[in-house]
Amino acid sequence: MDSSNSTKQNNNQFLNEDPADVDNEFCPGFKDVDAFVKYGLGTVVAATKASASLPQVGDEYDLYRSFPGFQEFCETQGDGLLHCMSQIMHHHGCRAHMRDRNKLTGLEERFDLVVDSNDVILEKVGILLDDAAGVNRSQQPVMPAGFQPPKIVVSSWNRKGGDSGSGRSSETFRLLQAKNVTRPQLKFLEKVDNSNTPFTPKIFVKPNAIKPLPSCKSLRSRQRPEDLDVPAALADFIHQQRTQEHVEDMFAHPYQYELDHLALPENLLSKPEPQMYKPLAETKCSFIDNLEDLVAVNEKLTKTSEFAVDLEHHSYRSFLGITCLMQISTRDEDFIIDTLELRSELYILNEAFTDPAIVKVFHGADSDIEWLQKDLGLYIVNMFDTHQASRTLNLGRHSLDHLLKLFCNVDSDKRYQLADWRIRPLPDEMFQYARADTHYLLYVYDRLRVDLWEVGNGQPALLQMVWHKSKDISVKKYMKPLFTEDSYMDLLRKQKKAFNTQQLTAFRLLYSWRDKLARQEDESTGYVLPNHMMIKISDILPKEPQGIIACCNPVPPLVRQQVNELHLLVQQAREMPLLKVRHAWGHAIHWFFLQPEIPLFGPHDTSRVSESDFPSFTPNGKIYLKSIVNINSVDTVKDPGHLTVAQQKAGRVVESFQNPFRMYLPSNDIHISKNAKFDPSTKIYEISKRWKLQSVEQQQKEVEAKKKVKEEAKALTHYIQSHLFDIILCLHFHQESLKPGGKKRERVASETGESTPKPNKKLMKAAEKKNEDSTPPLVFKPYDYSQSDFKVFAGTQPHVFMFYLTLKNAKAQKSNACAGNRSMSFFGGKSVR
Ligand code: AMP
Ligand code: MN
Ligand code: ZN
């Protein structure tokens, strides 16, 4: 607390003390913005320092807390702070119950409030800065002197030609970018996949593999195992089994096996000798933006025993975010790699990154691990996370700046952490900042290991623990954000808004509009329509488009462009019957999902409710009321003629999310680990839930169809197994009978010594021809050959055709499934790399 006073005095130099100038003051006591900012920043830094020097919760704090004087002091200070924060939040129109000492609004909830408010304030600041730069008003980009402005930048980066999903194919927006940053996405060789489908690893070669990758090549050869010497039906069966394996492989972490079997070398579990970092001035630092240099970096890395890695990422002007920079430091050299330029080439670093003999040192790698997978197809085997080490050592503060100060006495400046890392050429300040993130990290790694060794009483237990925690981070899989029918509820739950049915509908429609547009335009949802604006529109339900604009200050560009669309969505929401929905956030969030006996409409009011809208059990056991909560309310109304324009539009927005995964799936089931499927914290759980939310009717159909195919396949396999010899004979006899005069003899099993002949195409064709005028038997029944005379195989009896038809049937079913698989990015489209 003392330090804050002294800073105030230090900052007095910025205060305006000349009474003559008072009229020109920017605000009371400050002559201009600069003075105000400097004073403000000084105060904030002092406060942060003071708070950091308070006793830490968990150790000293509890002891201090046992003194009444300390307790009282903390409480009054705490109340004062909360009051101050509440006022700031109120001022910005955020929810603010900071001082509410209600047990329900616990620490976590207050933390949420602070995070939300920060978002709101930062968003305002960002957009106001854009505004001040004239970006929004004039729609003109800010260009450096001598820069040739681009002609027109169309915002629809990822839109396919002729894609008329929303009926707006002819519209292209003339959206110019904020500031003079070129969208890096434009130059990506492989277009970003924002589709609402699960992420599949971007890996097609696997260095340092113990368990090989189901590589593209082997996948292709496995696609149709016709060249196997087995009957076609068996080949199909094998193919189906393999297809299922592929789906599992596709979702798996490519290095799961290697990470699970990672054994650390003995020398990593002993006390190290710290190796001092080289001074910045004496260290070579290269900017890598071409493949040749990258190959050279890789060569160097593979010869080291450890190197440090960090990434910089941008997430505002992209749906999934973009990794912009990779910093790597060895003991001798620093590299700053342009991951925008080398995005499609960086996979080559997997050679060093997955080498279990090379330690990769990161600080706080949780996000880095995901970004590496998402953008670059890179994985880490053998990582040491200095953040985890700091936690294990209970160092109190675990940020990189703290470790740098502690071990290297370096004052780092985290100002650029949130800079726009897409900027090229990279300004020198940002270059230097990025470099400092890894330059000292190997030394920090040494020092932390020494401490871990010593704190662990000369035993490797603590070191092992850090390696173990780091491995748990490496094994994390990147999951794409997926839109599900109740994703909007997750957001609403966080906001704890009590909405009526109309507001809830508006929120749901806006949420899906925003998600769809963000994916299509490759923008973050926060850029398309920030949460607090979306809540405000849903809350107010403006009658006029102008009212929507009024809810947003400043107005996001895409909201301005699509205000009519938004207006129709709000109108559609206003047409809902007005009912209050009781929200008991926190406990019974699914109140209206779970209470079928308290329908939102009167039990006899069927005026607006179709049959399918009544509470129904979904396969995951959840009961839901489609008409209110389910996004399908619009499409369940049978006659589109009865819908208003607004309803139809809303329906179309919503329709685009119907069954986004269907085309990618061989079956209704997804093949991922059962644990993941039932662990609500995983995104896979969300995906599987989303799949389960398909209409029950369609599901039943599919289940029936699948059951039928399964039964047929089972009967067939059984049949083949028990009658293999009969079949060969049968085919042989039939074949013989087709030959005019025994000319041009076909190769047969007996001649070549093969026990299982390939399916004979001629025979199949002939059989097909014959079958044109006979009705195809629907159900396959094994023929009892024991009752037969082999003469009946002379081409007139139908069972050979039956056999063939069953094959054909099964084949058709399965090749459908294959088609779906083939369209997955994992199998194809890798040529750009
Ligand atoms: P760092 O590991 O500190 O270099 O941060 C890597 C990236 O994480 C930055 O480029 C930012 O995109 C993101 N980032 C870091 N800190 C924050 C933060 N406080 N809030 C949001 N994003 C952050
Ligand atoms: Mn980092
Ligand atoms: Zn960094």
Automatic annotation (TrEMBL):
Any Pfam family: DNA_pol_A_exo1
Biased composition (Polar residues): 1-15
Domain of life, per lineage: Eukaryota
MF term (GO), any: metal ion binding
GO CC annotations on file: cytoplasm; nuclear exosome (RNase complex); nucleolus; nucleoplasm
Gene3D superfamilies attached to this UniProt entry: HRDC domain, Ribonuclease H-like superfamily/Ribonuclease H
Cofactor: Mg(2+)
Biological-process GO terms, alphabetical: DNA repair; exonucleolytic trimming to generate mature 3'-end of 5.8S rRNA from tricistronic rRNA transcript (SSU-rRNA, 5.8S rRNA, LSU-rRNA); histone mRNA catabolic process; nuclear polyadenylation-dependent antisense transcript catabolic process; nuclear polyadenylation-dependent CUT catabolic process; nuclear polyadenylation-dependent rRNA catabolic process; nuclear polyadenylation-dependent snoRNA catabolic process; nuclear polyadenylation-dependent snRNA catabolic process
Region (Disordered): 1-20, 741-773
Record InterPro entries: 3'-5'_exonuclease_dom, Exosome-assoc_fac_Rrp6_N, HRDC-like_sf, HRDC_dom, HRDC_dom_sf, RNaseH-like_sf, RNaseH_sf, Rrp6-like
Record-annotated HRDC domain positions: 500-580
Coiled-coil regions, chain positions: none
Subcellular compartments: Cytoplasm; Nucleus, Nucleolus; Nucleus, Nucleoplasm
Keywords: Cytoplasm, DNA damage, DNA repair, Exonuclease, Exosome, Hydrolase, Isopeptide bond, Magnesium, Metal-binding, Nuclease, Nucleus, Phosphoprotein, RNA-binding, rRNA processing, Ubl conjugation
Main localisation: cytoplasm
Subunit structure: Component of the RNA exosome complex. The catalytically inactive RNA exosome core complex (Exo-9) associates with the catalytic subunit EXOSC10/RRP6 (via its N-terminus). Exo-9 may associate with DIS3 to form the nucleolar exosome complex, or DIS3L to form the cytoplasmic exosome complex. The RNA exosome complex interacts with cofactors C1D/RRP47, MPHOSPH6/MPP6 and MTREX/MTR4. Interacts with MTREX; the interaction with MTREX mediates the association of MTREX with nuclear RNA exosomes.
Family: Belongs to the exosome component 10/RRP6 family.
PANTHER family, per the entry: EXOSOME COMPONENT 10 (PTHR12124:SF47), POLYMYOSITIS/SCLERODERMA AUTOANTIGEN-RELATED (PTHR12124)
Listed name of the protein: Exosome complex component 10
Organism encoding this protein: Hucho hucho (huchen)
